[in-house]
Structures are given as C-alpha cells and as structure tokens.
Hints:
Layout: H1 3-8, H2 19-26, E1 30-34, E2 39-41, E3 49-55, E4 58-63, E5 69-75, E6 80-81, E7 95-98, E8 102-108, H3 109-118, H4 120-146, H5 149-164, E9 165-168, E10 171-174, H6 180-187, H7 191-203, E11 207-210, E12 213-216, H8 219-227
Antiparallel strand pairs: 1-8, 2-7, 3-6, 3-8, 4-5, 4-7, 9-10, 10-12, 11-12
Helix pairs in contact: 2-3, 3-4, 4-5, 5-8, 6-7
Amino acid sequence: MSDAAQHLRCNEVFKRLTAAQLRQVATGSKVRPLQRGQPIYRPGDKTDSCYVLVFGRAKIFDLTRTGKESILAFIEPGEFFGERALLGLSEHEHYVETIEPSTVVVIARKQLLRLMQDHADVSVRVAKTIGRRLLQFERRLRGLLFLSNRERLASVLLDLARQSGVATNDGISLRIRLSHHDLANIIGCSRETVSVEMAKLRSDGLIDSGRRRIVLTQPRRLKKLVSRNGI
C-alpha cells in the first residue's frame, strides 16, 4: 500500500475503506511535507485537489483590506479540507497555511469524485465533514455580529476545546498554542483588547494561561457566558 493510502486512514472519511478502495483514491495523490508558515493554497488557486492533514496544524484565513489576518478556523491532524473542489467551484477563496511543520495528502479531485459516485457511504461522510466546517464558519459569523468581545473570546476558546482540547486535572488544556495576537485575529479585535479580556477570564477563575498555554478551568461557566445569547 502506498504512503498516501496509509496516511488517508487517519481521516474518518477514509478509515473504513477497503484496501482496494484506498488504492483507488490514492491513485494520483501525493504526500506533501511542509514547513511552518508554508501556504497549502491561496485565493485564486485552482480547486483540482482535496487535502487531508496527517501531521501538524494549519489555519484557514482571509486578509482584510488593510492586510490584517482574519482567522476562520484551524485544521487539526486527521482533518479533511479543500472541499470547494467537490462543489463545482473552480478556485479557492481562502488562504490555508501551516502553523507548524506539517504533512498533507493531496488527493486528486477526479479520483475522490469517482469514489463518492461508487460508494454512497463515502459521500455521506464527506457531506458531514463539509457541514461541520460550514457550521463552524456560521457560528464564528454569528459571534462577530451578536456577541461582545468577552463573549466572542469565550466562544472561540470553547470551539478550540472541542477541536483540540485534552482533559487534565486542571481542566481542558488546548493543544494548540496561540498568542493574544492570534486570538485577536480570530475574534476581530485588537491584541490589547484580548489581553484585557483574558486577564478578566483568569481573574474570574474561568481560564488559566501563560506562554501560549491555555486551560479552560471552568468550561461550563464559559458555556453559560455564551449560551445566554443563543450562540
């Protein structure tokens, strides 16, 4: 079995495929090692491939008119992305860039479409993956529209806990390392505002943080802070 086929088993869309099905989708696919800060694709790039992140982490973002990053989501190991290739859209509209050394499997669009046509269960799993990403974007947009800075920050921390959190004796620790500047780029405010709001959350006993390490010590209280606004 090829390296690409073996790596695809880390993703829920492909992990239940037979060896023959894996060989089918791996035909024309390739394994791509990437350094930190290396782009995977940019707006305007052709959507001739989909991707699975095998190792490392990446971010999906846009740039504002002033050149500031607006982070839409993070991609964790095992995640499928680049789904615009399956939706009949010819170009990507977001940036995707690694935030640490990473490895991706680049999947040929035509091979994946053929597999989806032949196996309805694969189509269902791909649809669920796309749906989760859309819900994540929708939740982020609603937060920007209806929540205060403090509430948006709490909402993002809860999202990250669901995506990359690990239970510890102290609470839920985020595996991803983020600076206040990174968090500002997610919730759409200044770094100084994030620093103030993080200090308030620490003072209220809701989080513990330091050196890009964040632990949600009271996730239920954080959730109440957000859910009172229906987000």
